[in-house]
Here is the input.
Amino acid sequence: MYGNIKDAYSIGRYWGTCWHKLPYGGYVNIAKIISEKWLKLSRKGMVGKLVVNFLVFAMSGMVHALLQKKLGYSCGNWPEFLWWIGNFCVVVLEVAVQKVVADLRIALRWKRYEVFDRTLGYVWVFLFMFWGLPKAQFPRYLCDAALQ
Here is the structure.
């Protein structure tokens, strides 16, 4: 159900290879039906891949927000949903930055140091989660505490 934490050196890899996989297959299949059958987008095209990934994050956000509501939390559902949409945006940005860095390395003939890259990636994932998760989680707790 969970991948190896050592493979989580980017936000994309954290969600794609490390975190739980239980709902992922269903979300991807639904997203592919919407993307390929309804929107007629190519599975191999950049737009098709982006739409599938967006829909997977959006479905995950909706399910998390709905489960929060079902668990009795009266607030924080919207920040929870936005957290997942934000993660999609971060993954897209990450891929773009990785492409620019790879191209720069080739152009400037920089040597790639995998240990450095992974260490930087782990720090990035930790800092992003440390910064972002409270923005999604705290509204739910603070609101419910204020209501009691």
